[in-house]
Every structure is written in structure tokens, then in C-alpha cells.
Amino acid sequence: MPSTQYLPFAQRSLFIFALVYPLVLFPGAPFMPLAQWQNSGYDSAELFQLLPKICFLFLAGLIGFMVSRPIPWREPLVWLLGGHLGLVVLGAMLSGDDFTFNFLGPPRRMDGIFYHLGLVLLGIFVYSTLRRDPQRGLRIALLGLFWSGVVQAGVALLQRLGVDVFSPLVRYFPYNAPVGTIGQPGMLAGLLLGSFLAALVLYRLSEGKPRWGILLGVLVIAAAIGVSTNRSALIALVVGLVGLNLSQRSLGLFGASILAMLALLGGKYLLPNPHGFARGYGDTLTFKIRLQIWQIALEEIQKNPRLLLTGGGPDAFKLAMLRNPPVDRLMEAYRQELNWPSNATISKVQVVQDPDAPLRTKQLWVTFSTYGEYKNHTVVYDFLLDKAHNFLLDRLLDYGLLSVLIWILLYLFPLWRDIPHKTSSFGGLAWILVGLFVYYLAWFPVVQVEPLHVLLIAVTWALLVPERISIRSVRTVAAKAG
């Protein structure tokens, strides 16, 4: 029987992590002058946002791991997460990259070995905690994700209204869209998506009790998803909603879903927009760029089949671009991504790197015969592409085909287990993971958001036990949230 000595502490820690992790940052911008940064956006993001988060993740995962003993080593989730960590280390060792980049992760991302170690420790901690007391653990996890989403939604809605208390702490110039405390609207949408679906499951499990507070939170989060204007999150949200409603067949859940969609549209189209944020669902440019990036990624895999076996490490895609630049493909992508003038005509492209300089200093010097109103105009570009913007392609490039299979299992196996049951015995949690999986088909995991998604994976897998928990027993405990 698993020890319960530290169970109350572990459960409180689970709630605190879900709530606090997106808020972890170092408010350095007021104290460090802009002049000391060569690249204020990237450098400040690493020091003020990403580094504090990966340190907090590792510390939380390590403490949680220590109080979760005995660890259920023989359980499938632990093996899958451990296998992923082994593939991360193997891919990094064979990448040929510097140790610093392998351990801390590449610039702008910081998703190296250190981050993945914290991620795996967190997943095992959450799983072990839920296995000891599934009913109370489920309620606490859903509440933590619910309040985390409400806080982020509140910050994003204030940013939409012109009140931004976040960027002055971590950035030297305002964001061009509502980003919560995450730093990018698409990443914010991914976090809100998980919180939104978790909140709906919490709402479903609270049937029979007052739950107006939960419904209000659901609507606030939905409005913020609309404000983020991320098409991948919108499609994933619809898939998750359809699956939840088909699996639960609850009139109350259906009504909440309809209200949530109305709140989403209201957040997008009815809220005041004093800063003129111009993102729109009808813009197809982003998808066109994604298609170009996916084509480049697939061509790199064809050039280097070893990637199928071991991957190329945490920065595999960027290293492939640097080592053997597909110049023509990059120019096609840059034309769309950087919105070149329609008359931009390239006359020459040079790949430039100073002797003995690090590989990442390599640049593209592009000479245009015409560029808008300019003639014989030269522009220097960095190598901008570092992720394939597709969860499966990025995992394949970084850590190989086995890593792809691991993550497909982590996200989709719970649904396969749930299909034979006409009504999900744990409130439709599997459909949260399906929604996240759909979102990731046009995105990639990031330090700011993925730990909360792994938390959801661990919670769902912890309820895939032989003695399945009845929805009535879970609902009795979860209803206290209302």
C-alpha cells in the first residue's frame, strides 16, 4: 500500500504548482537597463521568464518525487516518462551541440535536459499523488488548473483593454497582443485550452451542487481564448467540447458549452480593443507558413534518416538549418513570415560566418535587386526557424520516432481505454488530452505551458486503474469546488 505520510503536503503542492507556475518570473526589467542587452526580446525572456520557470519546475518535481515514495516504478506511465527522458539524453549526446545548449536548452526555448528532467519528475509526482487518493487528488488538480486559467484569463483580458501589468516587469517594450504572463498569444491559448477543458470537467463533476462560480470561470477563460485569436486552440477547443458532450450526455454541460462559445466570440469581437490588436481567425498566412515549415522539416528527415532513430537533440531543427542551409526553402518561408514587399526580387544570397565563430552566429545576407522602393538592397537575416511547429515533427526531429510513439500513447491511450464505456467514469478527462493533442498538431511544446499539460496527462493516467472509480464517487468530492 503506498505511503500516505506526506499525502496532504503533496496534494497542496499539486494545487500550488498548477496555480503558481505560469506566474513564476524574475521582474528584472525595472532594474536592468535596456542598453546592456544585445537582443532585448530574447535575452530578457530567457533570464526573466524561462530560467525562473525551469528552476521552479525542477525544484517542484524533485521535492514532489522525494515525498512520493515509494514510486510505482512498474506502472506504464512511469516507464513512458522515463523512456522519454532517456531519449532526451541520448539525442542530446549524439547532437554534436555544445553541452550548455544540450543541458539548458537552445536560445529562446531553454527546453534541454534540465527542463525535461524536471518535467518527468513532475509527472511522476502527480501520478503517484493521484494514485494514493484519486478522488481528492482529482478535485485538487482540477481546481488548481481552473484557478490558473482564471488568473491568466484575467491578465489577458486586462491587456486587451489596455491595462498591462506584466510586460513592464519582464520586457522593454509592450507586447503586440494579449499574452497573459506567458509571453506569446498562441502559447497562452494552449494554457487556457487545458484550463478551459479541465474547468468543464470540474463543472460536470459538480452536478447536483451550486456551481455558478465554476461556470463564471469557464466563461472568463473562454473569453480570453477568443482574445488570443489562435486558430489551433479554437479547433482543439471545438474537438474537446464535442467529445466531452458526446461522452457525458449532460444537459448542464451542453448548456455551459454553448455559453462558453458565445463568451469566446464575445471576447474576440465585442470587447474594446484600444491598442488595435489585429489578429484574426480569417487570416490564412500563418497556416501557409506552417505548411512551408513542415515541408522543410520533412525534407531534413529525408536527408538524415538517423533522426528517425535517435533524433538530433533539443535544437535539432535549428542545427539542421545552420549546418546545411536549404536556402531556397528558407527564402520562401521568410517571404511569407517577414511580409516582404510584393516586388521583392532576390539577386543573391550568401551564407556568412566569421572564421572560428560559433555555429549559431551564421547569417544570411540577402541582396535584392528590388525591395519596395529600394534598389540593390542588402538585408542581413538570422536563421529564424528553430521549431517545426508540429508536436509530432518536433519530437521526431529532436528525439526520434520512439519519442513520437511515447507521446501519442500519453495523449491518446486514455481515450482508447474509455471508448468501450458509454459514459466516461472520470468525467471526460481523456477528451482534454485529445483536445491538447489536436492543438499541438500546429504547435510545439514550450517551457511556459507544457508542464501543466503533463500534469493533466498524469492525472488522467492515474485514474486508468483496474478498479475504475465511479463518476458518482468522484462527483461527491469534486462538488465541494462549487
Helix-strand pattern: HHHHHHHHHHHHHHHEEEHHHHH
Helix content: 55-70%
**Tally of DSSP helical segments:** 20
Oligomer: single chain
The poorly predicted ranges are 466-482
Q: Which whole number gives the mean pLDDT? A: 88
Question: What structural category characterises the helix and strand content?
Answer: mainly alpha
> Over all CA atoms, what is the radius of gyration?
23 Å
Task: Return the domain count.
Answer: 2
Q: Describe the sheet with the most strands.
A: 3 strands, antiparallel
Distance between the termini: 32 Å
The percent range for strand residues is: 5-15%
Q: Could you give the count of β-strands? A: 3
- Give the strand order, joined by hyphens, for the main sheet: 1-2-3
Protein model, in words:
With 482 residues, this protein is mainly alpha-helical. The protein has two domains: 7-278 and 399-481, no CATH class; 302-382, no CATH class. The chain is built from 20 helices and three strands. The chain has helices at 7-20, 40-67, 76-93, 99-104, 113-132, 134-160, 167-170, 185-205, 212-228, 231-248, 251-269, 285-303, 306-310, 316-323, 327-337, 391-399, 401-418, 429-440, 450-462, 471-478; strands spanning 345-352, 363-371, 374-382. A three-stranded antiparallel β-sheet has the order 1-2-3, with no helix packed on it. The protein is globular, with a radius of gyration of 23 Å. Mean pLDDT is 88; it is low at 466-482.
